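Narrative summary of target 7.
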Amino acid sequence: MTTIDQTPPSFVVHIPDAELEPEPLDPDQIVSGEPVVTGKVLWESPDGKQLRGIWQITPGVVTDTEANELFVVVSGRATVAVEGGDTLEIGPGDACVLREGDRTTWTVHETLRKAYHISL
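Modeled conformation, tokenized:
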């Protein structure tokens, strides 16, 4: 068969040890502290509308406008206040869904690492 398969091969990543790359925050997002964000996109759909990856943030307080996202916390703890909605206490093993357009304030208590899937 001569079909060229454009699908990447299946793979595994040990999330706690994965090497991440700097993802500088917009200074306007930082409310307090000196949080540092790192991450790595592991997969992106051909149309760029879906992403899967790993993301990490060190302690501090930041604001964000969310994408349509499902993530699972691997390590760390944070409080995520959704403007006009609930306050979410998240930690290891928690799965969280954020809606596109949610305006959030993240208070990161312990360096938080998550595996995510975003739909744009």
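The mean pLDDT is 94.
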